[in-house]
Amino acid sequence: MPVNTQQLTRFLEPEILRSIDSIELAARVLVEGLYASRHRCPFYGYTVEFKDYREYSPGDAPRMIDWKLLARTERYYVRRYEMESNMDVVLLLDGSGSMGYQPVDGRRLSKAEYASYLVASLAYLVRKQQDAAGLVTFGTDLVEFVPPRQGERHLFGLLARLNSLDVQGQTDLEAVLKKIALRLKRRSIIVLVSDCHGDPAKTTDGIRHLAARGHDIIVFHLLDADEVEFPFTALTNFRDVEDGVQMMCDPIRQKRRYMERLDAFRTTVRDGVVACGADYLFVDTSQPIETVLRDYLIYRRQRG
C-alpha cells in the first residue's frame, strides 16, 4: 500500500527509528513511498518494458517499427523500451570505531545506525526490483562478505547482520577495496557507505581498482552532523574513537581551523572519487534518509 509523505516523515524522526526493532520495517517504509514512478529504473540491465515512441531513423530494425501506428498516422515510429535492472548490487558498510561516534544530540542516529538504515533501504529496493543484493562489512579487513543473491530470505539474512553490527577498531579502505575487487567476479553496482577516515589518496587508489574492473561505484561519504557543524563551545577533551589518541583544546578558538581542514578533506575525497568515474554524495546524519535516497535515485535516473 502506498505510503504518503506524512507517514514517511513520521518514520524519519530519530526517536521513531530508534523504537523500531526491525530494520526491515524501516526499510519498507522508506522505500515504498519512493518506488512508484520515482525510480522505475535507477540502474540498468537486461529485461525491457515499453516506454514511448521516437521517429524512425535509417538503420533501425524493422521489427521495432509500430505498424499499427503507421496505419493510423502514415509515419514511421519505433518503439522505445525502458531497461529494468538485473544486476548484482554489493553494499559496503564501514564498521570501524569512528562510525559509532555518539552525537551530542542523543535523539539523532549515530553514523553506524544511519548507515544501517540506508543500506537496509537499498537492499530492500534491490530485492523489490528482482536484483541480487550483497553485503560487506569491514574495518581494517573484511569482517563479513555475503555474496549477492536474490529473494526475501536472503534479504532477511542481510538485515539480521545489520542488526548485529558491532563497530570497533580502525579502518583501511584501500586494502578492503582491493580485496573486494579480487573477490567480485561479475561487474556489479558497488555502494560504499563510510566516513572515509584515513588517507584520501589511499581511498582513491582502492576505488580505482574497483573502477578498473568495470564496476559501477557509488560513494556515500557519511559524517555526523557534529563533525560537520562542530557545535562544541566548552573546553573539551577530544578522543579518536579508532586509535584512542586524545587532545584537549578550546573548540571556539580551533573551530575555524577545523572547518578549513574538514572542507579540504571533503574536497580531496570528492575529487578523488569523481576522478575514478564514481558517483560521490556527501551526507550528514541530520539529513532525512528518504530525501537522500529519493534525490540520488532521481538524479541517477535522469542522468541515465
Q: How would you explain this protein's 3D organization?
A:
The protein is of the alpha/beta class and 304 residues long. The protein folds into two domains: 5-40 and 87-303, Rossmann fold, CATH 3.40.50.410; 45-83, no CATH class. Helices cover 44% and strands 23% of the residues. The protein has helices at 5-11, 14-19, 23-38, 67-73, 111-128, 152-163, 173-183, 200-212, 225-229, 251-275, 289-303, and strands at residues 45-55, 77-85, 88-94, 132-138, 142-149, 189-194, 216-223, 236-239, 246-249, 279-284. The strands form three sheets. The chain has a six-stranded mixed sheet with strand order 5-4-3-6-7-10, with helices on both faces. Strand 6, helix 8 (200-212) and strand 7 (216-223) form a beta-alpha-beta unit. Helix 8 (200-212) packs parallel to helix 10 (251-275). Mean pLDDT is 81; it is low at 1-22 and 36-48.
Give me the Rg, rounded.
Answer: 22 Å
Roughly how many Å apart are the termini? 28 Å
Number of domains: 2
Question: For this structure, what is the CATH class of the largest domain?
Answer: Alpha Beta
Task: List low-confidence stretches.
Answer: 1-22, 36-48
Largest sheet: 6 strands, mixed
Please identify, by name, the CATH architecture of the largest domain.
3-Layer(aba) Sandwich
What coarse outline follows from CA principal-axis ratios? Answer: elongated
Please, how many helices?
11
Which fold does the CATH topology of the largest domain refer to? Rossmann fold
Secondary-structure content class: alpha/beta
Helix and strand element order: HHHEHEEHEEHHEHEHEEHEH
